[in-house]
Amino acid sequence: MVTINSTIISGADAIGGIRPLLDRKTDLLLVTDGNIARLDAAKRIVALLKEDNRSVTLIDNVPPEPSHHDVSQLLAGISSKSFDVVVGMGGGSVLDVAKLLSVLCHPQSPGLDSLLAGVKPVARMPSLLIPATAGTGSEATPNAILAIPEQNTKVGIISPVLLPDYVALLPELTTSMPPHIASSTGIDALCHLIECFTSTVANPVSDNAALIGLTKLLNNIETACAEPDNLAAKLEMLWASYYGGVAIAHAGTHLVHALSYPLGGRYHLPHGVANAILLAPCMRVVRPYAVEKFAQVWDRVPGADTTLSAEEKSHALVDYFAALVRRLDLPDNLEALGVPREDIASLSDAALNVKRLMNNAPCQVNHDEVQAIYRTLFPKN
After folding, report:
1. Are 20 and 51 in contact (CB under 8 A)?
2. How many CA atoms lie within 13 A of 263 on its CB side?
3. Helix (H) or strand (E) holding 322
4. Of 151, 128, 107, 120, nearest in space to 264 by CA
5. Which of 116, 126, 147, 275 has the lowest CB atom count within 10 Å?
6. Residue 301 DSSP one-character state
7. Within the chain, what is the greatest distance between any pair of CA atoms?
8. How many separate helices (H) and strands (E) can be counted in the chain?
9. What secondary structure letter does DSSP report for 120?
10. Structure confidence by residue, pLDDT tens digits, 30-48
11. Residue 127 and residue 249: Cα distance in Å, rounded?
């Protein structure tokens, strides 16, 4: 179990709360991407970071679904500099890279290849993470996920050392998300919460975080996507995402994420989109092994019929997930996204090889069963 000691500031108009976190910090590394850097709220944050003559080195070209090659190139560009604090501002890919750079910029750090080989970091530079999407919960997880193109998959570098000193949940930074980003990242958070809640290593701490997060998410995701300037709904989604990260730190995801990793690694599908496509099909497989927990979640769905039996509630929840993905106008088949049906067998091989996640699933699935899940994601001929 991981202890999370991050100091959190949150709320609408709480950007100024970052200021005291930077006391006596003079050399900052800011990690973001070009889209985030152009936002008005991001410009306010950058201006605040530069107050009191602070030096800010900017990395604003973190790509979506970054690979280990991308991180190596970014690190090479700052190898001659030292920093007092690393600030990550962006979606999950940006925050994961910022976490890695906070380790790799420390003089005691192993190299990236060593981290990928399983060597654990022992120290990092002080860090502040500011999520600009409400999905990954990276600001609360000990994980950093990188694509490994040579293997057509992703790997996780996992250590409590990656957890940041400070987190800022600022809804103004999320109001400019396009609807498809808001919806796909929101479904990513939903996957974190429901997978951790039903994981074989779930425990009272992860269950509590998952249920708090699910309550916030289920009551706000559609409003937050439909009303981008609704700061109250946006803040609730940031907290839902954060609690998803907490749940990951104390338990772990399983079937959805194991099957989505090859889709991101091989076809570069956005992580939230891959998870959204897989959510209902995977939860349909998990459902018989998690009836009571599914029933608890169903009771948190707005307008849910709570008089149903636990069995009925579990079926209703899977149907709700499928309908929610459709209402959010997310893709529902892989063929339309350029994934050939002939790759189902190799995708299944790759998914089953993500043993760290597969071992968390409440049901054991074999190669044929994984192929059957993938097959449901293609149009019936």
Report:
1. no
2. 26
3. helix 310-327
4. 151
5. 116
6. S
7. 64
8. 16, 8
9. P
10. 999 989 999 999 999 999 9
11. 18
Dihedral pair phi/psi, residue 81, rounded to 5°: -115, 160
What span, in angstroms and rounded, lies between the C-alpha atoms of 331 and 133? Answer: 19
> For residue 268, what are the CA distances in angstroms to 69, 259, 362?
15, 13, 28
CATH fold match for the domains 7-174 and 179-375: no
pLDDT band at 65 (very low <50, low <70, confident <90, very high): confident
Residue 381 binned pLDDT confidence (cut-offs 50, 70, 90): low
Q: What gap in Å lies between CA 89 and CA 206, rounded to an integer?
A: 26
The CATH number of domain 7-174, selected from 3.40.50.1970, 3.40.50.620, 3.40.640.10, 3.40.50.12280? 3.40.50.1970
Q: How far is CA 246 from CA 190, 262, 294, in A?
A: 13, 24, 20
Residues 218 and 328 sit within 8 Å (Cβ to Cβ) = no
The pLDDT tens digits for 79-101 are: 888 899 999 999 999 999 999 99
Rounded CA-CA distance 96/207 in Å is 24
The answer to whether 321 touches 287, Cβ cutoff 8 Å, is no
Give the SS3 label for residue 30: strand
Domain ranges of the chain: 7-174, 179-375
Give the CATH architecture of domain 179-375. Up-down Bundle (1.20)
